[in-house]
User: Fold these one by one.
Assistant:
Number 1:
Amino acid sequence: MTRAEAALSDPSEHVILLAIDLLGNGCTPAPLERILEEKRGWRRPARALVSLARISPDATRRQLPRFVSHPVWQARIYAARAAKILGDAESLGKLRSDALPNVVAEALVTRDDALAALATDDYGLLVTALELLKGMESDDSAAPMLLETLARISDRMERTSRDPRRLLLERLRELDDVTVAARLEYLLEDFDPAIASLAAEIITEKTGKKTGAKTTRFASDPLPSADFLLGLQGARATIQMREAGSFVVELLPEAAPLTTAQFVKLAESGYYRGLTFHRIVPNFVIQGGSPGANEYVGTPGYIRDEVSNLSHERGTLGISTRGRDTGDSQIFVNLVDNFRLDHNYTVFARVVEGMENVDAIQEGDVIEEILVTRR
C-alpha cells in the first residue's frame, strides 16, 4: 500500500482529497475506481476522475459522461480537466456550451475556442481565453474581435475590468496591424489610469509618435461617514456556512477602516449570501466571496490596501488582490501563520470563535449568511 492509499483513511478531509490527487501518480486504478462509486458528495469522486485519467484512460472514459452532465458545476470543471488529459474533444465541446463561465474556461483548448469566448462579459472566462491566445499563431484578423470586446468591456466602467482589458491590449499589441493605434485613442482618458497608460505605450510603439495618458489617477471615492466607522468599534460578524457550520470574526476598523466598512456594507446588503469559498489551499488560505466563484469577478470598484502592523496570523482575514490597491469583495482566511503576506495584504478581521469550522470548509461550500453585530 502506498502512502497516498494509506492517507485515504485520514480523519482530515483535506488530507484525503490530497491523497486522491496523488493516486494519479502511477498507482493502481482500483482505489480510484472505488472512490468513483461513492454515492455521498461530489468532491472525492470528481478528483478521483482526474487522477484516474492519468493512469487508466479506458476506465475514465466509461465514467466521464456522468460528470460532464453532473448537477454540481464544480464537478463539471473536474470533468473538463479529465477530458483534457484524455484528449476527449466531444466531451470538451459539450462543456464549452455549459451555462457556467468557469466550466467553459476549463474546457478551452484551441485558438478558435478562445476567440469564441471573447463574446462573454465574465472577466474570469475572458482572462482565461486571452491568456490562451498569448503565443498562439495569430494574424491581424483577430483585431476586430479584440477591439469590439475591449470597447464593450470598457463601457461597463468597472475598475475590476482592468485584468481582461490589460490582456486585450496586450493581445492587440502583439499584432502587426498598426491601424489599431487609432482605435485605442479613446482609452487615453479612460477612468483607469493603468489602462490609459498602457494604451499610450501601445500607441507610441505602433505610430512612433510619443503619446501620453490623459488620466493619471482614479477619481476619489466617497468615504464612509465618521458615525458609521465609529459604530464598527467592537463589532463582530458571524459567518454561517452551509456545510462547515459557523465562525465568528472580530472586525478591526482601527487597522483597516475602509475595508471593514465595505465588508459590513456588503454583508448587511446580503451581497455574500449564496456565494462560495471557491479556492481552498491547505496549509495556506481559503478564499471566497466572488459572484463568479473565481479570482476576477467581484464588486465593480477597487478599495485601497490598508497595510498595518498586523500580521497574517492563523485565523486573520484579508482581502484578495491582483496588485497594489486592487481589492474588491473577495476575502480570505489564513489557515496558518502566513507572515510572507505581511505588508502586502490588508488584515481587517480575526476569527475569535469556530476556527475548527474554518478548517473544515471545502471547495464550493456556500456562505448562507453574514450577520454583523455591533457592540
Number 2:
Amino acid sequence: MPLTAGEVIQPARDLHPQFSRDRHPDRVCLDFIEHRQRTYFKELADVLKDRLSRARTLADTIAGALVGVDASGVAYFASTGGDGFAVAIDAGGTPYLLPDVISLDPYADGFVLPETALQIVDVYATLADSNRVMPVHWMEQRQKARAGSTPAELVATVNGFRLLPLKNPLDGSSGWDHVESVTVVWIDEPAPLTSLASQLAVPTIYGQVLTWDLTAMLARRERTLNPEFPADLGQMYGEMASAERRDLVVTVPFDHRVVKERRFARNR
C-alpha cells in the first residue's frame, strides 16, 4: 500500500512535544512534504520508468480517418475551416459528434500531450496495414528544419506540448499515411497533497527519509518560534535524512523496478 502523508507527519510529531499541530499546522507539513517528494520523484523518474510510467492513446482511427483525442481521452476530428467536434462511439461502434467544438485540427496542429506529464518516456504508433508497432521520434520545434521524414520512419515535433507529425515535404507521402493509432508513455507529476490521507507518489521506502526531512524542518521552524529550542536538533535530523537518502540511491534501483529478463547466447 502507498504511504499517506499522515504516516510521514505523525512519526515526526512524535519525536518532540513542541512539534504539535497547534504550533506547526498540518498544512505547513503537507506543503513541505509535497515539495520534497517532488524533488525525489524527479530524481527517480529515470531509474523507475517501468514502475512510474503510464500510457494513453493520443490518436485513433474513426471512420477510416486518423483523429486526435483531447486531454480527457475523448476523440475528435476537424471539419472544414479547422473547427473540430468531439467524437463518441455508440454501442454499435458508430461514431457520432458531440456538441463540444474544438478549434484545432488534430493532424495539422498536433496531438495533445498529457498536461500533467513530468517526463515523456516513449511515443509509438500502430500501422493500419500490418498492425506493426513503430517508434515515433520526437524533437523540439527548433530542430524541425534539420529533420527529414521518409516512409520508413515516423518523425514528429513538440510545440506547445502538442505532438505534431512531420512530413518533409509537407505534401509528400510518409509513414504517417499508414498510422492507425498513436500512444504516449509518460510519467505524471505527483498529485498535490490535500490531506493527511493523501497518498505519496514515491516508493514506501522513502517514508523514513521524508520523516527525517520533515523533522529537521520542524526543528528549524520551532527554533524561529522559540529561541531557546536546541539549535543543533535541526542539523542532526537533516544529517540523518541525508544519510538515509544516500542509501536509497543505491538500493531503490534494485528493489523498486522491474527486473528485465536477460537472455544469454549459448556458447557452442
